[in-house]
Amino acid sequence: MVLRSASAALASAGYEIEVAENGADAFRLFRESPGRFSLIVADVMMPVMGGGELAAQVLAIDPAMKILLMSGYADVRAETGGLPLPFVRKPFLPDQLRSTVRDLIDPPRR
């Protein structure tokens, strides 16, 4: 349900979305075309590979890649190996997600 609502919220804001069912699939998509993505949005707790592990593997290939994690847990640092990554807490409103993504990838407005 979170995957569908997050995808719909970002697509409605005009972002091109690529959906993966789990962290391993997301990593495979990134590895196949690393320059294609501006941002990876991942849940900390996903099947097969969690968001923290996904982030570590992606950043090993592209240290400048932007990654936004989401979770219902209060402290995600343990799940991310201490990586200082942007984070949005579930449940969130679609506008909160859109605003966070916009701040991360859109150029600043003057």
Task: Summarize the structure in short.
The protein has helices spanning 2-12, 23-32, 51-61, 94-105, and strands at residues 39-43, 66-71, 87-89.
Describe this structure in words.
With 110 residues, the chain is of the alpha/beta class. It has a single domain, classed as Response regulator (Rossmann fold, 3-Layer(aba) Sandwich). Helices cover 40% and strands 13% of the residues. It has helices at 2-12, 23-32, 51-61, 94-105; strands at residues 39-43, 66-71, 87-89. It has a three-stranded parallel beta sheet, sandwiched between helices. Strand 1 (39-43), helix 3 (51-61) and strand 2 (66-71) form a beta-alpha-beta unit. It is globular and about 30 Å long. The protein starts with a helix and ends in a 5-residue tail after the last helix. The relative contact order is 0.17.
Structural key phrases:
single chain, 110 residues, alpha/beta, Rossmann fold, three-stranded parallel β-sheet, globular
* CA gyration radius, whole angstroms: 13 Å
Principal-axis shape equals globular
Uncertain segments are: none
**What is the oligomeric state here?**
single chain
What's the N-to-C terminus distance?
A: 36 Å
Spatial strand sequence of the major β-sheet:
1-2-3
Topology overview:
Layout: H1 2-12, H2 23-32, E1 39-43, H3 51-61, E2 66-71, E3 87-89, H4 94-105
Parallel strand pairs: 1-2, 2-3
